[in-house]
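Hi Prof. W.,

I finally got the Cytochrome ubiquinol oxidase subunit I prediction working! I wasn't sure whether to trim anything, so I left the full sequence exactly as given:
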Amino acid sequence: MFENADALILARIQFAFTISFHFIFPAFSIGLASYLAVLEGLWLKTGKQLYLDLFKYWLKIFAIAFAMGVVSGIVMSYQFGTNWSVFSDRAGPVIGPLMAYEVLTAFFLEAGFLGVMLFGMEKVGKKLHFAATCMVAFGTFISAFWILSVNSWMQTPVGFEMGANGQFLPGPSWWDIVFNPSFPYRLVHTVIAAYLTTAFVVGGVGAWHLLKDRTSAHARKMFSMAMWMAALVAPIQIFAGDMHGLNTLEHQPQKVMAMEGHYESHPDGAPLYLFGIPDDREQRLDYAVGIPKASSLILKHDLNAPMAGLDTIPDDEQPPVAIVFWSFRIMVAIGFAMLGIGLWSLLARYRKRLYDWKLLHRAAVFMAPAGFVAVIAGWITTEVGRQPYVIYNVLRTADAASPLAAPAVATSLLAFVIVYFFVFGIGTWYILHLMRSTPHTGEKGVKRGDTGPIRTAGFTPGPTQDPTGSGGDGTLADRNKAADRQEGTTGSKPVDLWGDRGQPDRREGDGQ
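And this is what came out:
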């Protein structure tokens, strides 16, 4: 069925599918790790049990989301070698070290402190545990730093030299590569998006529980903190997005032309099209609804500033306008909806009705997944708007793909779709199940297994097994009877082979 399919299109779909799944979880865990650090810090500062309860409540959710983010990210690295081997060969000298830095810094930092954060609250001091939580949060930021540096270099490649074999070789300064022209804007915009995504998930969960019980102190605190984040950070994100757009106009004008739907040049000021149906074949925007000269005002801060259109770009250099046009509008619309919720919450707070306005709570529940939609829409705008290049203006996507037949790529794509929806569908369902439970006083947090690690030597206790061969049920009494028979002490005081902690008693030596 895939004999006539395009292997390049299938490879692009496969990478888009896997990275879309992956992007959802880091976008959540980056913000949630910082939220956990804030909660634990407030608990240490105030001593209020409520903050500790919320910390343990969200810690369980963070553990699942973090695990799914790691698993989904591993798969993408293999695609560089299977579907995009030419890209890996040519860009490896630049991309490889940056990806290695992410592993050596962020991944090791997260791996080193994650266990303490999840399981160490009763094992280490409060300050040390808080330090571990902060290190995990910092590690998620460093991970975003390096990954976005790589992606930004692909958008605005600088600081490289072309080798004789066609490879991109790093120039004299790695700092030019790491801090490429679009990287600072992309980093700020993406990290703030992660924080807003988490804020609206927390706010949606808090609103859900407020609708069921307006007196819940835990739900009130969650909702209040999330709405503060929406009200204060959403305007900053809109400003950061505007600055990012200006940077994109300077370095990737074709992308902005597609975002704005400007097929034609406008020498006397370009309109801001709100809606329309892009037609790449006819090079026009049908049924356009716009505001005259507003695009020139936003992008060049001058109503009459001239704006070039796609008519100045060769057809084979233009990105797919329809996808970029609509994904950009979805992202912007959600951004302003977040701002609206934040302002609405300020009004409710001013009138002392933040926990009483059910319509606001229902809107917050509806907006809970909006951040995920926004970050995916923003990613689509960024990546599709870069086409037909994988490294902007220097390496075409068609020249970066592996020489594979379409059926081979299609088979792995189908396998990914089936496995991803099954595995991550179950994980997402479990996260939603955890969110449905009401936070309460005395939250348990992440629980370790009741039996502990599997033992490789000595007795392995089990509630339904009979390790003594006495026909009993493996209880402590049965083991004591077995010990009596082995030592010839029947009638004397039973010997507890397992000690006070459920482990072999080694006070007198157990031969190990």
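The mean pLDDT is 84. Does that look reasonable to you?

Thanks,
D.
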